[in-house]
Amino acid sequence: INSNWSTAHFEELKFPRTAGTDHNRMAMCNSFHRLLFLWLYILCLCQYSSLVSGTTRDYFGAKRRLMRHLTNDSEIVREIRPARDNNTSVNIKVRIHLREIANVDEKNQLVQTTVWLRLDWNNPFLTWDPVEYGGV
């Protein structure tokens, strides 16, 4: 290190100040603080998620076991008519929600639409004992 250096030399090396420099520093400082805040927020979320009570974990574990139990024979469930005998009818609730009318062809009398179709029915083969699955 050269001992002849003085503070005057350091002042010569400083960059000249421009009008926007303070604004840029503030913007950098704000973005740094935002990033720091986001990082702390994520850490708090991770900490909170690790404190989930055992009851909640048990509930979701029981729900997972139940879903595995119900879908274990998924091919059989899909192929069998959801009724205990052939004389029992299956009531199906049909809901159609019109989402959009995409096109209307008046000449050919055609209407092109987009709909949501929901079908609900009861399947008596999908049953379980809630006690075995933590009250689910």
TrEMBL record:
GO terms for cellular component: membrane
GO molecular function annotations of the record: extracellular ligand-gated monoatomic ion channel activity
Q: Where is each Neurotransmitter-gated ion-channel ligand-binding domain found?
A: 64-135
Pfam families, sorted = Neur_chan_LBD
InterPro entries in the record? Neur_chan_lig-bd, Neur_chan_lig-bd_sf
Task: Spell out the protein name for this chain.
Answer: Low-density lipo receptor-related
Per UniProt, the keywords (alphabetical) are:
Receptor
Source organism's superkingdom?
A: Eukaryota
